[in-house]
């Protein structure tokens, strides 16, 4: 049984994510001195990722001592409440390192086997989105409009690939989007920023190939409140799985169903 996310809880999470944004920006403004490591080819982690995750973890533990915490950079604190806060300290680290503005801090609440509440904070764009079960989705406090439909002559989607996805799978995905679905596409290097574009109606949907739970745990509850659906079947996933999924209007999901069936994880064969 899920617990209600109270107004006090929302205010606490907003405060934490905004403070985390300030910490990330302090690193961003001195990029030339920020240590950068490679987790894999084109898969980077910085001191900023680690410090932001440590800060958010400490703040969440202090605010919600009964809850668990799970983070991209190793945070793993078991809880007693059945609730787990999932952290992506910087979604779009490659963009961060290159000096771009397409990166965000994500916090999502995982409860009862599904994401129920999420926050996305984009420091350089001064955008904060939040929403979830029983909580209207907002952007900087203003309600986000419901999304539906898709105009075939203007159809567009975001596309994201984890660096481990083989080139042939990437090319097949783009071929399908362009040739069979007959859509334009955007690839910005951040699942969160791409899903914000879905939320604001700038694209009809998003195809994520190789995303992690922390990439989507914050955005999904926000999108669900405004009519955006996903192919994610949380009963089939572990928090460490790489996901292959689509999110968008019902019309978008129907159009991409041949390439992203419901409830699939990433197949690297």
From TrEMBL:
UniProt-listed SUPFAM superfamilies: Carbohydrate phosphatase
Enzyme class: hydrolase
Source species, domain of life: Bacteria
Keyword Phosphoprotein set for record: no
Keyword entries, A-Z: Hydrolase, Magnesium, Metal-binding
Keyword Lipoprotein: no
Coiled-coil region: none
E.C. no: 3.1.3.11
Record-stated family: Belongs to the inositol monophosphatase superfamily.
Protein name: Fructose-1, 6-bisphosphatase/inositol-1-monophosphatase
Source species of the chain: Roseobacter fucihabitans
Gene name in the database record: suhB_2
């Amino acid at each position: 049984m899920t617990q209600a996310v109270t107004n006090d809880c929302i205010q606490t999470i907003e405060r934490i994510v905004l403070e985390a944004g300030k910490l990330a920006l302090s690193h961003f403004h001195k990029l030339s001195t920020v240590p950068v490591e490679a987790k894999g080819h084109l898969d980077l982690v910085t001191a900023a990722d680690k410090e932001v995750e440590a800060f958010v973890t400490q703040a969440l533990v202090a605010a919600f001592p009964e809850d668990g915490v799970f983070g991209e950079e190793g945070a793993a604190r078991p809880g007693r409440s059945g609730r787990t806060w999932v952290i992506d300290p910087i979604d779009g680290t490659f963009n961060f390192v290159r000096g771009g503005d397409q990166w965000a801090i994500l916090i999502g609440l995982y409860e009862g086997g599904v994401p129920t509440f999420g926050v996305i904070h984009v420091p350089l764009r001064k955008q904060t989105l939040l929403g979830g079960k029983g909580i209207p989705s907002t952007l900087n406090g203003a309600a986000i409009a419901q999304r539906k439909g898709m105009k075939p002559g203007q159809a567009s989607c975001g596309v994201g690939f984890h660096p481990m996805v083989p080139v042939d799978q990437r090319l097949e995905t783009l071929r399908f989007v362009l040739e069979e679905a007959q859509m334009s596409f955007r690839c910005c290097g951040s699942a969160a920023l791409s899903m914000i574009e879905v939320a604001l109606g700038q694209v009809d949907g998003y195809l994520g190939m190789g995303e992690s739970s922390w990439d989507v745990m914050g955005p999904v509850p926000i999108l669900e409140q405004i009519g955006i659906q996903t192919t994610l079947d949380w009963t089939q996933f572990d928090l460490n799985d790489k996901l292959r999924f689509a999110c968008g209007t019902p019309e978008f999901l129907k159009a991409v169903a041949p390439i992203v069936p419901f409830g699939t994880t990433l197949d690297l064969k």
